[in-house]
Amino acid sequence: MSLEHIRLSTQAKEQLIKLKRATGIKNWNVLCRWAFCVSVADASVPTDKKILSDSSVEMSWKVFGGAYQDIYLALLKQRCTRDHLEISAGTLAQQFRVHLHRGIAQLAGDRNIKSISNLLGRAIV
Hints:
two-stranded antiparallel sheet; Arc Repressor Mutant
């Protein structure tokens, strides 16, 4: 498993479609950035479970992170350190996947997100 290539589960794809419809954000990577940050900000340790990569939604790490990919990687490493996990390629890839999927689920499950303003309001809290 590597950070270079990211493929989402079918469930995450369906949740992202719901979020795209609600917020009007058209790009998967933008919503995925929001989702990753939501999960990393959550103090609880995400469940380390096997996540199927069975959807057609995929992107490279460069597309996910864009100009800020180094910042996202630093956030991931800091979170792994906080959770007492080793900083290895395998651990980073696994933790990224669980944080990304958890964040997507949290955003999709938030009944208050009905527009991009609601999504922005969540960041201000």
